[in-house]
Amino acid sequence: EVALKEEIVAGFDRTLNKWLSAHGRGLTPDQRKALFFVNRRYMQTH
């Protein structure tokens, strides 16, 4: 259960990294951190 969640989060981070490299040029490091945080929280509650 936990391992599966880790996998999902890791895959989600990779997807988000791809998205950020394509679209995130204007974001500050803090905004990036916030995105990762929000996305992780979202993944944990859905």
Automatic annotation (TrEMBL):
TM stretches of this protein: none
Sections of the chain in a coiled coil: none
Protein name: Egg-lysin
Keyword check for Membrane: no
Sorted UniProt keywords: Fertilization, Signal
Gene Ontology process terms (BP): single fertilization
InterPro entries the UniProt entry points to: Egg_lysin, Egg_lysin_sf
